[in-house]
Amino acid sequence: MAVEPSASILVVDDSEAVCKALRDVLTVSGYTVRTAPSGERAMQIMETAQMDLIITDLKMSGMSGIQLLKKVKEKHPSLPVVILTGFGDMDSVIEAMRSGVADYLKKPFSINEVLQVTERELKRSQQMQAVAMAASLLPRAESPAGQVAAISFSAKDMERIDAALSELRAQTTADSVLLIEEGGCVVSSKGMLNGGNVPLLCALILSCRSTTTQVASLLGEEKSFPLHYLEGQRVAVYAAEINPILILVAVVPKSVKQGAVWVYAKKAVADVEKVSARAAQPVAPVAPAEAIVSTRVDEPTPPSPQSGSAPVGPEPAVTQPEPAADFDTLFSEEMLAAGTDLADSVQTLTWEEAMARGLLGDMKL
């Protein structure tokens, strides 16, 4: 079922048969579909019609799919673009992923795959638009059982996560790449599991994780095994723990070398880890800072004026407190090597003064 009855989709392909096939499939599912035989014609259509999704072939005569993608993103940055590609075009697919393509469909594609990718990208686009209008975080993702995701990501962070998953899928020719949470929620997914049950797959992956955690504990490991690998006759399943909450899962054809998959998966894990760390970072409350009186060592401190008497001398300068710096920063090897005069940049305190200001905590000699 279509996400929105009037969602408009533009199909761009220089093959009339492909355009007709996609138009028929999407129209029956309730979408409004227009077709274009070239990228040039697609740009003309978009000047007078508003589209919710574009599906374009990667290789076309005249303007290529990547060229069309870049032109579309210049005018409509949030418009999702799905590309059609053959098996020999993976280098171009990776370039397209880095240019902002939402996902890709391999030729020949199935009806279910087309509908699943279309519905998912339209939903994601609608969520992004809602976030932009409300200037707030994305609604928390929910699993089929109604579980609520542990982390809410901003629209910008979701774009980074989707890009990392898309690039990993293109680099490994994976059937599907998913980012799931410990509660079974799917944060993001790319590709399609042919005949697969995504909630059940998530549950089984989490079950494997629980088992390996027990194995690690039994063997005296301080932490659970972060990498999991399952090999079948047709596909292999790779699972990598990003943190205690998030797991990256890739379903990859068995013919792809394990080493290559882990190299690309490691990069995706690092990219997602940066995003999740930022999203989970609590915002520390800002307490009112006390004013700090800056005085020169070679000048006497102005006496405090008595009640009812006129102030003597100029008022001491009030400055905002500098951010706290740790000892590694203040006395780094780089500073010492550069011959920095610490007396000019760091205030020298006696032991008693430092203790009185609470700078040494419970430190004792």
How large, in whole angstroms, is the Cα Rg?
Answer: 29 Å
Mean pLDDT: 74
Order of helical and strand elements: EHEHEHEHEHHEEHEEEHEEHHHH
Q: Rough shape?
A: globular
The stretches of 5 or more residues where confidence is low (pLDDT under 50) are 135-148, 283-301, 304-310, 318-347
Residues in helix, %: 40-55%
The helix-and-strand class reads alpha/beta
* Biggest sheet, spatial arrangement of strands: 2-1-3-4-5
Oligomer: single chain
Q: What's the total number of strands?
A: 12
Number of helices: 12
> In whole angstroms, how far apart are the ends?
73 Å
Largest sheet: 5 strands, parallel
Strand content: 15-25%
Give an overview in words.
With 365 residues, the protein is of the alpha/beta class. The protein has twelve helices and twelve strands. The chain has a five-stranded parallel sheet with strand order 2-1-3-4-5, sandwiched between helices. Strand 3 (53-57), helix 3 and strand 4 (81-85) form a beta-alpha-beta unit. Helix 6 packs antiparallel against helix 8 (258-280). The longest helix has 24 residues, at 111-134. It starts with 7 loop residues before the first strand and ends in a 9-residue tail after the last helix.
